Amino acid sequence: EKSIxxxxxxxxxHRIAGGRAFDCxxxxxxELRRLKLAFLAKDYPTDVLxxxxxxxxxxxAISVERAEVQARAFGHSRIDxxxxxxxxxxxxLSGMDHENDRGEMARAEAHWRxxxxxxxxxxxxxxx
Length: 128
Description:
By secondary structure, the chain is α+β, with helices and mostly antiparallel strands. The chain contains six helices and three strands, in the order αβαββαααα. It has helices at 2-15, 29-40, 64-74, 78-93, 104-116, 122-127, and strands at residues 22-27, 48-52, 58-63.
């Protein structure tokens, strides 16, 4: 899994972020909950968080536990779910915000999902 995700991150960096690097922490619900509380003042775990950085592209944190649950719920592999979450996080690092952009991020996510052969996007699942 690690080499698949490393290659995918490199692909995302080159194809979407103009070669700018980002860091991705794959951890558990406890850590995502701690990060969400520390940075967003919300006390519950989440699947992915993005932290833009002025000097570099930024950082993404993904809960492998949430990814496992969501993968089962949506009928695909955990690795595909982590890749979906990584794509979603990178689009946020690139400045997109699905809560305020009138569907721009959803369209971008659908486009890149198709390009990478990924299952239904994170945004599309929450809208349906």
